[in-house]
Each structure stands twice: as C-alpha cells, then as structure tokens.
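Hello,

Our lab assistant flagged a job as stuck in the queue for most of the afternoon. It eventually completed. Since we weren't sure the result was trustworthy after the delay, we are filing this so someone can double-check. Below is the sequence as submitted and the structure that was eventually returned. Let us know if re-running is recommended.
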Amino acid sequence: MALLAAVQAGFFLWQLRMMLRSLVDTKKAADAAEEAAKTTPASIELARETAERQLRGYVFPDKDSTVTASQVGWAPTVRLRFKNEGQTPVSHARVRVQRHGRPFPLPQPLAPLTEEPEFLSSQFIGPQGYITWPSPKEKLSPAEVEAHNAGACVHYYQGDVRYTDAFGNDRTTQFLFSISGD
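-- returned structure --
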C-alpha cells in the first residue's frame, strides 16, 4: 500500500508539473495574441493606405496637350488634355489656367494662382479617361506679338486641375506649358 501511495503521489506531482507548464505556455500564447491585437490596427491602416495609393485616380496633363498660335491676329490656342492614370474614377475634375507673357528664361518663378480663372465645368473622368480644356480665344496686344516674335517673350500657361478621388480626397495637380516665338 505504501508503494501504491508513493506512485500516486509521484503521478500527482508529474500532473502538477504538466499543468504548470501548460499555464506558462498559455501565458505565452495570450501575450502573443495581445501583441498581435495591438499591431492589427496599424497593419489594417497600412493596407488601406497602400490600396488607396495603388487604386486612386491620378490626373496629369497628357502628352497630346497643345499650345499653338494662329497666324491671323496671333491668338494663342490652348488645348489641354488631362488623363486619369489611376484605376478608379475621379469626380468634380475642374481646370483653371492663367496666361503669362514673360521673358525666357524666367527671371523669377511665376506667382501662385491668386485669382480664380475660368474653370472647366465639373467633370467625371473614368479610369484611363480624358477631359479636354479648350482655352477661350485671346488676342495679344501688338507689343506682345512683337516681343513674342522677337523671342523676347514666352507665353506660359500656368494652372491646375482639381478633382476628388474615389476615396473622397480632394487632389490638385499643377502644370505649366509654354509657347515661344522661335
């Protein structure tokens, strides 16, 4: 009997040791789960930001934009084409442009757009889609034409295109086109 009691006591101690190991392992697992729970919101935010950068609309001036001068009355014609290079549509796309006659090279940077030039009406641009902004015909003064033809003046078309991406963020792309007399 004493032998049986000793075996039972030994078995009990072995079970107690296994339960303590199990508690230690459970504590480690709980700590790891807590750490994972703490990092999950940051991972989700990073995934959201990455998806937004990859999917959102990016509107840029297209290579088919043109700035030309007609020979009759020398009225510059500006046809700016903007392309949505993104994978999702953009809404409320609008363009504003100002013309500046300045020497080349510019002695100082052009001032930021301060007044509200004519806007193209608000437009929707699908993925890989375009909008085109045709400028109003604008006659130049005889002095501007002479300076332009002599190469002393370059006409800069400064502006921006503003739009709202599919994630509800307002975006702006600035641009600068030019036409010279030579």
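-- support follow-up --
The delay was a queue issue, not a problem with the job. The result is valid. The longest strand covers residues 90-102. Residues 2-55 form the longest helix (54 residues).
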